[in-house]
Amino acid sequence: MWRVERVSDELYAGAAEHYEPKALATLMFAIGQVGFFAPVALIAKPVPGRSFSDPWK
Known about the structure:
This protein is mainly alpha-helical. It has helices spanning 9-16, 21-44. The protein is 56% helix and 0% strand.
C-alpha cells in the first residue's frame, strides 16, 4: 500500500516563492496526473507505434 504524506509547510512556502499561485496549482496538477497515469499505463501495456484505440475498432 502506498503511504501518502502531506507536503510540509516549509516546502510549500519555498515553492510558492518561485511560482505564482496559478502556476503552482498547474504544477501540482501535472505532478498528480503523472502519478496517476504512469501506473495506469503500466497496467494497460501500451504498444509503441500503435494507437491506444486500435483494440476497440
